[in-house]
């Protein structure tokens, strides 16, 4: 089992993501709106061949450390026809 502090940290980071894809291939995200996510709206981690389009992301101007789309260890990612206001 994980020490309680590490477990709490993992829960904190998982709660602060609206939508996450991990280790996925040939992902298409289209036509969604995400509002007021506390930290990360959309995250792609270790993904390949990702297409995001017709997406709207918005959060208040005073939100701390807000990532609209967070890319980590991912390749062949395209984002088009989207409105990111983070």
UniProtKB/TrEMBL annotation:
Gene3D superfamilies: Single-stranded right-handed beta-helix, Pectin lyase-like (2.160.20.10). InterPro entries: Glyco_hydro_28 (IPR000743), Pectin_lyas_fold (IPR012334), Pectin_lyase_fold/virulence (IPR011050). GO terms for molecular function: polygalacturonase activity. SUPFAM superfamilies: Pectin lyase-like (SSF51126). GO terms for biological process: carbohydrate metabolic process; cell wall organization. Its main location: secreted. It is found in: Secreted, Cell wall. It comes from the Eukaryota. Pfam families: Glyco_hydro_28 (PF00295). Keywords: Cell wall, Cell wall biogenesis/degradation, Glycosidase, Hydrolase, Secreted. Belongs to the glycosyl hydrolase 28 family. This is Pectate lyase domain-containing protein. It comes from Nymphaea colorata.
């Amino acid at each position: 089992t994980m020490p309680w502090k590490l477990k709490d940290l993992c829960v904190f980071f998982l709660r602060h993501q609206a939508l996450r894809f991990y280790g996925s291939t040939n992902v298409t995200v289209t036509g969604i709106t995400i509002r007021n996510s506390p930290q990360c709206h959309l995250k792609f981690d270790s993904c390949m061949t990702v297409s995001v389009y017709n997406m709207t992301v918005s959060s208040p101007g005073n939100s701390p450390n807000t990532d609209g789309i967070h890319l980590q260890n991912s390749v062949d990612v395209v984002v088009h026809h989207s409105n990111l206001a983070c």
